[in-house]
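=== RUN LOG ===
request id: a7f3
mode: sequence -> structure
chains: 1
length: 157
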Amino acid sequence: MPELEDMRQFAARLIERRNRAALLLTPDLPGQQAYAARLAGALNAMHFDALSRFQEDETLLSRLSYFSSDDLLALIAEQRDHRLVVVSGIEFLLAAWISQGEPKQVKHSLCQKIELWVADPAFILVTHEDPVFASYQPERHRGSRVVLHTYQTLALE
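=== RESULT ===
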C-alpha cells in the first residue's frame, strides 16, 4: 500500500517545482468547499471558490456561456500575490464546458493545462472524483504528481 501524502509537504514541493499545479479529487461533493477551505488554512494558502466568485461578480456571471478553462486559469493567475491557492467550486464550469464539447476531451485538456502550469501562483484544484481525471497520466512532467485523491492524503488536523 502506498504511503499517504502529507499535503503540507506536497504543497511545499508544488510551490518549488516547475509545473506548479495539481488536481485533488474528492468523493464528497457537498463538503468540497469546506474541505478546500480547511486545506487552504492548513497550508497557509488562499482559498479561491469559483462558484462564490461568480455569484458575487455579475460581470463574470454574464460571461459564463463563453468562459473557458483558459479564462479560469487567468482568474487564478490574478491571485499572484499569494504563493499558493486552493481552488474549489468549478463543477458548474465543468458542466458548461462539457455541454460545449466532448466530455473526455474537455477533462483531458484541463488536466494538460494543470500539468503545464508554470506561472504564479501555484495552485491545487479541488474537484469531484471523476474517472477521466483519475486516469490522467502526466505527459510532459512524468516525474511529478499532477492528480491525487483525498484518500491518498493524510487527514487534515
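=== NOTES ===
The first helix runs from residue 7 to 16.
The radius of gyration is 15 Å.
=== END ===
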